[in-house]
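Marked as duplicate of an earlier ticket. Keeping the data here for the record.
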Amino acid sequence: MNDLLDRYFGLLERRLIVMRQLVRELETGQAAIVGLSLSEIVAHTAQQEALCRELRCLENALLLLHLQLWPRPAGTNSSGNPVPPSIPVAPAVRPRWIAIWAELNEVEQQIRHLARVHAGLLRRAGRSLGIFLNLLNRGAGTYVPPPVASSPVELQPSGVRFGE
């Protein structure tokens, strides 16, 4: 049981590290959105997707291990994670257990907040791009350059003949 519990704690700590990386990535990605830098937005989005995939893998591993450690169903929080008080842990590891879950809950709140800010910035960027596109489309017919003639037209005054 101790080996499984140590592995479970290791996965929780790894999850905490990945979630902190996601917080940093969301924070730095906001500057790219505000600056409308497409290459940076793409890079940050790819990094965020990779971190989210890693989190899903960790959560699946945690769930399997959780079911091995505590076979009876446990309550879950809004993220679907086991609620700490419903899981019996030895008094010796309870402080570590409570500390990790408190940090996880804090980082989850940060991610929720940053995700809302991120979504707002994306909406604003989308509106800005929409305005630019409308401006471009609206003026497209008005400011069309004159067509270029395929052959130059010689202008000669009427009644005047050259070369005679």
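See parent ticket for discussion. Residues 2-128 form one domain.
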